[in-house]
Known about the structure:
Blueprint: H1 3-13, E1 18-21, H2 39-56, E2 59-62, H3 67-77
Parallel strand pairs: 1-2
Amino acid sequence: MDTCIAIRIAYKKNGKVFFIDRPLAELMPTSNRPLAKDREAIEKRYNERYDIYCATADVHIPAECTAEEVAERIVVKR
């Protein structure tokens, strides 16, 4: 079985999967995350993973708002 599919199945067995979808422009490089160390790395991962995240999520939450508003949307969707 494809590792990606196995991971998706495991996530769904453990509960509801929420995808907090932040716009690419708002994702910032950080030195403590090697796969997000610079803008190019972030864009590469985003493009590789976006469709997987969308396909895996039970609930897709656009995060073009405050963290508090995102949290409220999660509580409502549970």
